[in-house]
Amino acid sequence: MTFNERQIIKECLNNNREAQNLLYKTFAPKMYVVCLRYAGNKNDANDILQEAFIRVFKYLGTFKYKGSLEGWIRKIVVRTALNFLKYKYEYADYEDNIDDTQDLMEESITNLNIEEIIKIIQELPEGKRIIFNLYVFEGYSHKEIAEMLDISVKTSKAQYCKAKNYIIEKLNSLKIINYENK
Hints:
- The protein is mainly alpha-helical.
- The protein folds into two domains: 3-86, Orthogonal Bundle (Rna Polymerase Sigma Factor, Chain: A), CATH 1.10.1740.10; 102-173, Arc Repressor Mutant, subunit A, CATH 1.10.10.
- The protein is 70% helix and 0% strand.
- The radius of gyration is 18 Å and the shape is globular.
């Protein structure tokens, strides 16, 4: 935490609109990318971002200066996205064989630009997209995801596998990789 961030937080807590605007402009672009990964479209991403920053400003006084401010804001954004999407998707309990193709996907994704990656992820059905984001980008375990979403660990793994297989198929069709999922 830099002195400037501490000062900005202090000013935000004193309802200084310039400081609030600065905080928003500093973190909103990165957080919008997070919102896009969870949302199916730009309108939902904008709604999630707006709601998340309302929560950021509401709870800014609870920030304990442990860890980064950006990390704290990111957690709020992710939770807001999950709450936003919670009522739009019913989780099914599927069981699939989960194989380890993560390295292949990571290698392939480096050949894409961020807009292409976001577009492919946005094409996933909401439940699969949420689980994929939580597991791959946020680093949660399937057990943690299951607890957050009130689903079984098996469902989390199956939805992740289905999302990953869809992405592999999409990368194959775009001729970015040539992988046969067996």
